[in-house]
Amino acid sequence: MKVGVVTFPGSLDEVDAQRAVRIGGHEAVALWHGDHDLRGVDAVVLPGGFSYGDYLRCGAISRFSPVMTEVIEAAGRGMPVLGICNGFQILCESHLLPGALIRNERQKFLCVDQRLRIENNRTAWTSSYDEGAEVVIALKNGEGSFVADTETLDRLEGEGRVVARYLGDNPNGSLRAIAGISNERGNVVGLMPHPEHSVEDLTGTGTDGLGFFTSLAAAAFA
Amino acid sequence: MPRVVVDVMPKPEILDPQGKAVQGALPRLGFTGVSDVRQGKRFELTVDGEVTDAVLEQVHQMAETLLSNPVIENFTVRIEDAAGAEVLA
């Protein structure tokens, strides 16, 4: 599959995301925030970083960039979209996903090897995992605390849309230890940890993150 | 020239770690008696011409779509004169 990775001004992890896409068996296509063009890709990754300097709120300005008009439209048609960290924030600001991400409860920027449980393996980005699989993936964020009202949280839980949950100490104060969620259809997934940093034995925390990128192929043939 | 002021605050039920950090710093500096601090944002919009109802309506739309995130924040809109005194719309 052709997987687009968007670069916004202030993105940091787009090169790692492209590499993870390739290791996952796909062609990586660089996309630019200022273009009204998805270049014929089959899926999109919104990478981590500090787009637009996190000015106003994380993701608030990126949401209105030209490429996001296309991403929002394509997501509505069912195209798989994965937002990692800052990408998750952008998806929430775009209202493709419910809730919001606020400053970590303990105010500190985190960078840890985080244990997670994959709660839902029926999304386009998690089908390679066994449901309930416990994985270790890099987590690095300053504003990663997931919040939503109780009704929204109950709906997410009830519909099985909590994709990943933190294990052990809740690292950033996310409500119900939520690390990632999906939209109703399961094609749009937001994740605070960084699977693209956990795809090679040589660097990072191992290869537990690779499944997010290999899942796409399974989704395509499902 | 009048300006329109938009104050954006975290909703009461949303944890405000920045406000809590400020609150924690106050007693260390010898300031006592503050039981809570909430930190928000203030936007001052200088508009061309008169602040009409239509302008205010537009500012409300700006506040809803960009200046605030309704999931976690509330906002208020008011008009101030150059000296910072509130002007009734």
Describe the protein's architecture and organization:
The complex is a heterodimer of chains A (222) and B (89). Chain A has 222 residues and is an alpha/beta fold. Chain A has one domain: Rossmann fold (3-Layer(aba) Sandwich). In chain A, 23% of the residues lie in helices and 26% in strands. Chain A has a 9-stranded mixed sheet, with helices on both faces. In chain A, helix 1 links the parallel strand 1 and strand 2. The longest helix of chain A is centred in the N-terminal third of the chain and has 12 residues. Chain A is globular. Chain B has 89 residues and is α+β, with helices and mostly antiparallel strands. Chain B has a domain of 59 residues: Phosphoribosylformylglycinamidine synthase subunit PurS (Mth169, Chain: A). Chain B is 30% helix and 27% strand. In chain B, strand 3 and strand 4 form a beta hairpin. The longest helix of chain B has 15 residues. Chain B is flat. The model of chain B has no long low-confidence stretch (mean pLDDT 93).
CATH superfamily of the domain at 3-13 and 40-87 in chain B: Phosphoribosylformylglycinamidine synthase subunit PurS
Tell me the name of the CATH class of the domain at 3-13 and 40-87 in chain B.
Alpha Beta
Biggest β-sheet description of chain B: 4 strands, antiparallel
> Which class of secondary structure composition applies to the elements of chain B?
alpha+beta
Low-confidence stretches of chain A: none
Tally of individual domains of chain A: 1
Proportion of residues in extended strands of chain B: 25-35%
What is the percent of helical residues of chain A? 10-25%
Could you say which overall geometry of chain A the principal axes of the C-alpha atoms support? globular
The arrangement of helices and strands of chain A along the chain is EHEEHEHEEEEHEEEH
Rg of chain B (CA only): 16 Å
Which features would summarize this protein structure in a list?
heterodimer; A: 222 residues; alpha/beta; Rossmann fold; two-stranded antiparallel sheet; 5 helices; 11 strands; 23% helix; globular; B: 89 residues; alpha+beta; Mth169, Chain: A; four-stranded antiparallel beta sheet
